[in-house]
Structure formats: structure tokens, C-alpha cells
């Protein structure tokens, strides 16, 4: 079974430039998550989708960050404009079912995109 | 503040030594508990999880963890570590209900280095 796919794996941009990350979850997984992981810290949730609906986006900085999950499969996370403090690893994860549902089990993580803002 | 605390940031052991990594959380009510591991150059993967039932949970590669509700703890143990256990270990919690249902709250991680 293929895992969660993310691209690009690495991205270097200058501040004030836009950047986008792409995630393809495990086939059949209804729930998709975007996490931010700063150096030396654990991941923190940015947004959670159940199918195409964003059900938990309270920690997404909406002034510069946006996300979409069209058709409830792939997802894109965008930053515009990027700031120096956005340098981090952006993780995508997926899980079967929905949280609290009978098939909710564990979150499967992708390899992440390491963003460096200069 | 609600949080997940991992008390050891870096643990260094020799092969065959016993391991215990501490994890405490500060959320009330029903919680689900996880340990994730990240081997060098690899992505996060689940080591073990606790949802309900027997508080002593066994995971992959000989790891186990014990949920002690009265102490808000979920410590990870392994009786004899191997060089291949060198990795970063994350404790994580999800809450059983509410608007943040399904959100994983992570500790900051513990880097384990095992010397051969």
C-alpha cells in the first residue's frame, strides 16, 4: 500500500515569495491533516479535513496561509507571502474514517516538506 | 496551559540497556494516547497506541507503554534497546470529544541514541 505522498521534499525561497505544498493521502482515507513542525519541537496541527470540509482550522494563520482539498482527495497548502519564521517542516497525514467514528484509528504521516525562507 | 510533556530531550544508552521515556499530559476527560517514532531520514510512524482497555499496551519492535490515569502519564519502555532503536520518539494525545476531536497534540520529542 502506498503511503502519504508529499511534494516537494525541499523548498528554498526568499521572503515575501509565495509557496505551495501538495499532499496525496493514502487511498480511501477520509481525513487529511496538515501539521507544522519547527526545529526541536513536535508537530502542531494547522488544519484538518474530513473529506472536502475543513473541520478544524483554528490554528491556521489565515492572513497568509490557505489550504484546499478539492474533491476530498489531494490537498494543497499555500503560504503567501512567506516570512522568515515560516521555515519549518510541513507534514501531511491521513487517517481512515473520521475522528470519533468507528474506523478512526491512527494517523499516517508523509515524509514532509522542509521549507527554508531566506 | 494544556500540553504534552516529555521530560527527557536526549537519552543516550548502550545496547542491551533498559529504556523508559516519560510522557505526561494535562488534558482532562477521555484521551487517546500514542507514541510515534521517527528514524533518521524517515517519516513519523506509529509505535503503539492506547484507546481503552488494558492500560499496558504492547507495540512494535518490543516496545510497550503503560497508561496511568491517576498520574496523567503514558511512559514508553523497552527492556533491552538495540542500536537500530536510535531515533526520535514523540508522545501524542488526542482528546475524546469536542471541537478538537482528532487533533494530535505532540510533545517536543526525545532523541534516543544507542551506542553499539
How is this structure best described in words?
The complex is a heterodimer of chains A (118) and B (116). Chain A is mainly beta and 118 residues long. Chain A has one domain (5-100): Sandwich (Immunoglobulin-like). Helices cover 0% and strands 47% of the residues of chain A. Chain A has strands at 5-7, 10-13, 19-24, 31-37, 44-50, 53-56, 65-68, 75-79, 88-95, 108-109, 113-117. In chain A, the strands form two sheets. In chain A, strands 2, 4, 5, 6, 9, 10 and 11 form a seven-stranded mixed sheet that branches. Chain A has a four-stranded antiparallel sheet with strand order 1-3-8-7, with no helix packed on it. With 116 residues, chain B is mostly beta strands. Chain B has a single domain (4-115), classed as Immunoglobulins (Immunoglobulin-like, Sandwich). In chain B, 0% of the residues lie in helices and 49% in strands. Chain B contains no helices and twelve strands. In chain B, the strands form three sheets. In chain B, strands 2, 5, 6, 10, 11 and 12 form a six-stranded mixed sheet that branches. In chain B, a hairpin with a 6-residue loop joins strand 5 (31-38) and strand 6. The interface between A and B is medium-sized, with 29 and 24 residues.
Weakly predicted, low-confidence segments of chain A = none
The main pleated sheet of chain B reads as: 6 strands, mixed
CATH class type of chain A: Mainly Beta
H/E order of the elements of chain A?
A: EEEEEEEEEEE
Discrete helix count of chain B: 0
Distance between the termini of chain B: 40 Å
CATH superfamily of chain B: Immunoglobulins
Percentage of residues in strands of chain A: over 45%
Q: Which percent range describes the beta-strand content of chain B?
A: over 45%
Alpha-beta classification of chain B: mainly beta
Percent range for helical residues of chain A?
under 10%
Number of strands of chain A: 11
The domain tally of chain A reads 1
**Mean model confidence by pLDDT of chain B:** 91
Task: Give the overall shape of chain B, derived from the CA principal axes.
Answer: globular
Q: Which CATH-level-2 architecture of chain B?
A: Sandwich
Instruction: Look at the structure and name the CATH superfamily of chain A.
Output: Immunoglobulins
